[in-house]
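Reagents: none. Just compute today. Outer membrane protein assembly factor BamE.
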Amino acid sequence: MKRFDSPLNSNQTFNLPVKTLSSLGLICALLLSSGCSWLSPYKPPITQGNVMTTESLQYLQEGLTKDQVRQLLGPPMGQDAFQPDHWEYIFFSTEGDIYAGISEHLDLEFDEDQMLKSWKRSAAKKQIIKDRGFWGN
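Predicted 3D structure written out:
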C-alpha cells in the first residue's frame, strides 16, 4: 500500500505573514463596523382611513341620511360620543403609484333629524418624521 504524505510534515506549521493578517483583520473590522448602514430596510406604503374618490364625494348632498352616507363613504373614522351629529373621514397614503401621497379630511355635520346638513373637505394636516436610523444620522 502506498501512503500519501502531505507536503507539510507533522512538525511544520503554516504561518501567514503579520502584514496579511493585520490587513485582513482591518478589513473585517471595517465591514463589521459599517453594519447594514448602506442597506435600507423595506418600508411598506402606509394607507389609512377611507378612500374618498371624487366620484363618491360628488354624490354627497344635503338631506342624505346617516345610513346613506355610510353606504357611500364607509364607516367614519372619527365619531364623537358627545357629538353624534359630527362625523370625520380621514384618508392618508404614502403609496405614490396609486394615490400619489394624498391626504384628505372630510367633516360632516348632521341635523337633529339625522340628515346631512353640511360638509367640508380639506387637505389633512400631516407631519411625517423621517426615520434617521439608529445613530440619528
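The radius of gyration is 32 Å.
Action item: order primers for follow-up constructs.
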